[in-house]
Amino acid sequence: ELYFRIINTILFSGNEAELRESMIQLEKKTPLDEYFTYGYGARHLWVCQRRPSDKTNIFEHRIMMVEFQ
Fold this sequence. Notes:
Number of helices: 3
Structural class: alpha+beta
Number of strands: 3
Distance between the termini: 28 Å
């Protein structure tokens, strides 16, 4: 369910500023940090999944990347 909430947050954001604010709100309302980590590059948002067996370890590859225009 949380994965789909991330996708919906991305899809319903009209621009970079909205996406940043929406991700902050999602983080406050859900256990986002427990299962995922995310960050921003110069022109993109990336999302990585935490390992279920050890939440301090993160899978090597990003599961989502969103480019800003």
